[in-house]
């Protein structure tokens, strides 16, 4: 059994002025006979940038998918804004999903549509706004992520960093209080990645948006994370939690120490 020293319940260290918007209690997950993680507990506070970190294959993306109701845990439950996506259906499920924005690793933009049209898509699907209003909202979102001048471009005509920004703008189209980002820095050069980190921090501070970010990019973790949890494949669970800078400076166990050292080299 790999070490789990230094892990509390993932709940107690959340600042009292940030009420929980996500509560994970005793969640376990696996595929077939393979266990990915067991008995994971944590809270995400409103307005936090909460980072899920860990080595390749430990289950970070799977945990994100559990949180947004794409998978059901094998045990335990996740509540998000007081609802349980794995149990909600019909209107209740749609209402909950409207409160969440997701940006997948690739940005997942539709190649035949301009950035403006991409950002307008969720507004078409989920609101009755007339076209003019949808366009106005989409322009505001593109402006927020620094793409105000690129609204008419196609995804093939923009850089990787711009595609990520456009993905964030689309995820924000319906003003969700919680945004999930899966590996936002993947494939970006360090300067572009740092710019994206700045954007995430700005949006969290200025709009009060809660971010749940999956990443293993150390610079990003340290730049954006208010709090993090670390999953580990060997331990099949959560092996650390807290402020990432604190974990770097005072790692609670060898796996955490190695994670932070390996990536700083
Ligand atoms: N739908 C699925 N069915 C079966 N196995 C899966 C499924 N999704 C993920 N896995 C497996 O579960 C493990 C964890 O996958 P996951 O994508 O959650 O890891 P990760 O920590 O995000 O990894 P990475 O950092 O490499 O993206 C992997 O071995 C993956 O192959």
TrEMBL record:
SUPFAM superfamilies from the UniProt entry: P-loop containing nucleoside triphosphate hydrolases
Gene3D superfamilies assigned to the protein according to its UniProt record, in alphabetical order: P-loop containing nucleotide triphosphate hydrolases (3.40.50.300)
Domain named ABC transporter: residues: 22-260
UniProt xrefs under Pfam families: ABC_tran
Keyword Cell inner membrane listed: no
One function term, GO molecular function aspect: ATP binding
Keyword terms: ATP-binding, Nucleotide-binding, Transport
Classification via InterPro entries: AAA+_ATPase (IPR003593), ABC_transporter-like_ATP-bd (IPR003439), ABC_transporter-like_CS (IPR017871), P-loop_NTPase (IPR027417)
Listed transmembrane segments: none
Protein name: Phospholipid/cholesterol/gamma-HCH transport system ATP-binding protein
Lineage of origin: Bacteria, Pseudomonadati, Pseudomonadota, Alphaproteobacteria, Acetobacterales
């Amino acid at each position: 059994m790999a070490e789990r020293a230094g892990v509390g319940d993932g709940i107690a260290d959340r600042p009292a002025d940030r009420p929980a918007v996500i509560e994970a209690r005793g969640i376990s997950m696996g595929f077939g006979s393979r266990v990915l993680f067991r008995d994971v507990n944590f809270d995400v506070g409103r307005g936090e940038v909460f980072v899920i970190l860990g080595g390749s294959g430990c289950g970070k993306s799977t945990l994100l998918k559990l949180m947004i109701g794409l998978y059901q845990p094998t045990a335990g439950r996740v509540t998000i804004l007081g609802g349980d996506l794995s149990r909600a259906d019909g209107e209740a499920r749609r209402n909950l999903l409207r409160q969440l924005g997701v940006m997948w690793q690739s940005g997942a933009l539709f190649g035949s549509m301009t950035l403006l049209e991409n950002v307008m898509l969720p507004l078409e699907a989920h609101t009755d706004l007339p076209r003019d209003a949808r366009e106005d909202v989409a322009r505001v979102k593109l402006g927020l992520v620094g793409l105000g001048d690129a609204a008419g471009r196609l995804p093939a005509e923009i850089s990787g960093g711009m595609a990520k920004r456009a993905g964030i703008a689309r995820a924000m189209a319906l003003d969700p209080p919680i945004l999930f980002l899966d590996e936002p820095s993947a494939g970006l050069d360090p300067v572009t990645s740092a710019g994206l980190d700045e954007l995430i921090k700005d949006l969290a501070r200025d709009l009060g948006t809660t971010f749940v970010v999956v990443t293993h990019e150390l610079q990003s973790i340290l730049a954006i994370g208010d709090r993090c949890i670390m999953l580990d494949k060997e331990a099949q669970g959560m092996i650390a939690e807290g402020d990432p800078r604190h974990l770097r400076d005072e790692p609670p166990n060898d796996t955490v120490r190695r994670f932070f050292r390996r990536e700083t080299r």
